[in-house]
Amino acid sequence: MFGWILGRRGRHGFDLTDWLSFGFLGLGVVLMLGPVMWLVLSSFKTEAALQEYPPKFLPLVPIEVQVDGFEQPLQLFTITAGEHAGRELAQVRRIGLNAQMVDPANPSERLNVAIGDRDALREFGVATENYTGVFERFNFMLYFWNSTFITVVATVLTVLFNSMAAFALAKYKFTGRNAVFVLIIATLMIPPTITLVPLFLVISEMGMVNSHWGVIWPAIATPTGVFLLRQYMLTIPDDLLDAARMDNASEWKVYWKIVLPLSAPALAVLVIFSVMWRWNEFLWPLIVLNRSEVFTLQLALNSFQGELQTSWSSLLAMTVLTLLPITIVFAFLQKYITQGIAQSGVK
Amino acid sequence: MLKTLATQAYDGAFNLFERPMLALQRLFGQSRIAWVFLLPNLLIFGLFTFLPIILNFVFATTGGDRILLADRPFVGTEHFASLLDCESYFDPNSCHRDLFWRAVGNTGWFVLMQVGFMILFSLITALILNRDIVLRGFFRAVFFYPVLLSPVVVALIWKWILQRNGVLNAGLEGAGFGTVNWLLEADWAFFWVVFVSIWCNMGFYVLILLAGLQSIPSDVYEAAEMDGTPRWRSLWRITLPLLMPTMLVVMVLSVIRAVQAFDEIYVLTGGGPGSATTLLIQYIYDVGFATRPRLYGLAAAASLLMAGVLFVLTMMQLAATRKQSGDN
């Protein structure tokens, strides 16, 4: 019944190398997904549980009970030693090394227990307040909006400008075309990390320091995008364009109504790349955006983790929320993303 | 509903530009309109790529901590001289800019380790994924998933695992070993920087290598099988030689990336402890932006030196790519 999981497709038999392969892949799955799973599990733990060492695998919360005569719910303990050993008692308050406790079944009698003699009772429980706290205290929506704004605007402009340039390079014959193409491809050789200082001058001269546009503009003329789209547009037959021109279509109409729709597969690849690039970008925003109200999610995460009083519970929840959008996109478009990358060789 | 909305937006954008584009077409004629299509892209390239390249030389030859060029006095090759001022290039302590040479040394080690082990693991993974196994798509996706995560998220995931009271130390202690302050001990911090960088980049190279493996025609293997060639021998004599062009591209690509590594390392260790994990880009960022006074000139000079190295590496990539397409 479970033969399929062991067998190789279309063949019979399962030899040593197959076991080794699956062993390796299994280890790979643990190593690749384990850390992310651990992050997600941890993000549901209370701050107290996060401080615990050694850490528990599942998020656990202390059990609290409502006891007659007390307004607040009381935390439940099991007593491990002393005269009340074996009983389950609720703690009223702690006084020094002793705890004043009551039996929930008999609330009128106060019992004294040494704090070393009791063990907190816990149950599986999810600390959703980590997540709500991120929204209430950390202005998460603002950073989320900043990141989304940059990603969406930059992607729209990238696709528009790159496809216009690719259209010109693929579908027109004019003097200087090859020179322009070589010039654009040559910029592939100049990674943005090389020109940080002068680019910062350009951006500050244009008054775009601490502005999202300072992150958006330098990023949108990607040589990768132009190259990708040009190669695709070359496969669109010129006859199609000429037929439209016969019908008096303007060049703009040819581009917008014929070439763009036909390039949809290549455009989709570029959209996915652009979203990934902009959402995850770190170094350039780190230089341009210095005020916390314009921070992207990545910058906000980085600045919180750098603060002395980092509360891991909020930080972990925020990290999970940051990786969530990309994970959802990947879950749905996994096939297209991997194909697009394998075919174009860019990331 | 959503679809009609998208269509409306698409048509709306068309109408918005139709008249001005038509006017431009009348003005320039049908073929020179191409320049109009090129213009936005070229303008951005010019302003944010080509202009900065030229300005980089201006910055590298001027001093002071002001960003405006008019406020910057000309200093000639002073920055380059100070960066290259060393008694021995093998001993950072003998250098005027010792931190720069530490960063150069770290980057060299990092590139060697990261690229070497990453390609080894990527190759093994790709070879296994290339077998006719079930759930291949799932495994491929799992190995690729970390590539999509942002460097900050990657660094925080590992920081949480590696922290003093983290799950790794707890596991080690549970198994009877001692605990280590992973990110505060120089050698371990460097190890984890390499490890994490492999973790979050490997999937990309697995994909490329897998595509390369799948382009090897299967009849070569069938012929070998008919001749009774053992499997390890056909791996050594058929697979690896035929994969060589892809390997070459992967190697150069990963070296170029590794030289520029910054994001996840900066968040994971901040370059520390001390300067144990400070790489070149972080040095440039530190002297140019993070510390005051901002030494823009020194940062520009350092990035020009790095650009020289990258230029040579990219040339190698182009040569490799050309060789590959020539072979096919």
TrEMBL record, chain A:
Keywords, in A-Z order: Cell membrane, Membrane, Transmembrane, Transmembrane helix, Transport
Gene3D superfamilies: MetI-like (1.10.3720.10)
Signal sequence bounds: none
ABC transmembrane type-1 domain span: 144-333
Location(s), subcellular: Cell membrane
Main location: membrane
CDD domains per the UniProt record, alphabetical: TM_PBP2
Residue spans crossing the bilayer: 20-41, 143-168, 180-203, 215-233, 254-277, 312-333
Topological category with respect to the lipid bilayer: Multi-pass membrane protein
PROSITE patterns: ABC_TM1
Family: Belongs to the binding-protein-dependent transport system permease family.
Record protein name field: Carbohydrate ABC transporter permease
Organism expressing this protein natively: Roseinatronobacter domitianus
Organism lineage string: Bacteria, Pseudomonadati, Pseudomonadota, Alphaproteobacteria, Rhodobacterales
UniProtKB/TrEMBL annotation, chain B:
Location(s) in or outside the cell: Cell membrane
Topology of this chain in the membrane: Multi-pass membrane protein
Transmembrane helix in keyword set: yes
Keywords recorded for this protein, A-Z: Cell membrane, Membrane, Transmembrane, Transmembrane helix, Transport
Main location: membrane
All residue ranges annotated as the ABC transmembrane type-1 domain in the record: 104-317
Pfam families recorded: BPD_transp_1
Protein family (similarity comment): Belongs to the binding-protein-dependent transport system permease family.
Protein name: Sugar ABC transporter permease
Protein species of origin: Roseinatronobacter domitianus
